[in-house]
Amino acid sequence: MLAFHFWMRARVTILGSGTSHGVPMIGCSCAVCTSADPRDRRTRPSIYVDVENGPKILVDTSTDLREQALVNQVLRVDAILFTHSHADHIMGLDDSRRFSQMQKRAIPCYADRDTAASLKKTFYYVFDPATDKGGGLPQIDLRIIDGPFSVDGVAVQPIPLMHGSRPITGFRFGDFAYLTDTNHVPDEAMPLLAGVKTMVLDALRHRPHPTHFTVAQALGVVERVKPEQAYFTHICHDLPHVATNASLPAGVALAFDGLQVDIAWT
User: Fold this and answer.
1) How confident is the model at residue 236, as a pLDDT?
2) What is the mean pLDDT of residues 180-197?
């Protein structure tokens, strides 16, 4: 496991806390989709890690990246980390070109081998030297995750997860862990989560799903990891914010778009 830097601090912003459909969902008039509570409005899942006097790290380029960046005043991205290549986690990649334009350099992007291959296929025009450059392209420096790594001196610990039958990647930054789009945390991941104080974890709904945790299953993971605070993400329209939080134990709550959490490397 990569050694964490001492006394480094960061602020994590939940850019999106919703499922792949987003909430409200197209064509739905349920109580959550028509809710006036802004915490029931959920864009596609992503987080932004703003390290104090350090790099600004985006995890996934969600379908809603442009809106999320504008709403949360995301002005810089020094690296992008990908959990996997499902559409709701990568389809905003083209909007990253604005950051590379402003910063005048390619953005390092970290992904496992399967995700990197999918990115090259889905966004073939980005990686094809023959593509006409007139319209502007994301400037991407694609790097393979094969173990712990660092972004401008900031330690990042990949966490192996399962999304149905598919291996994907969660991430640990200091005392914070981000584990989205999973229905199984393998035993080998547990030592990598030791000492985590804040965890953001997949919890789609109460009803079973083949590739996502239910609320009850997510609570089981919280009991194993024992963070001081857990937030559930990748939430569908089955879970109203206020009513669901009232049913959760102390130290557990639904995440919401715009939620900010302070973290540290100790």
Assistant:
1) 98
2) 98
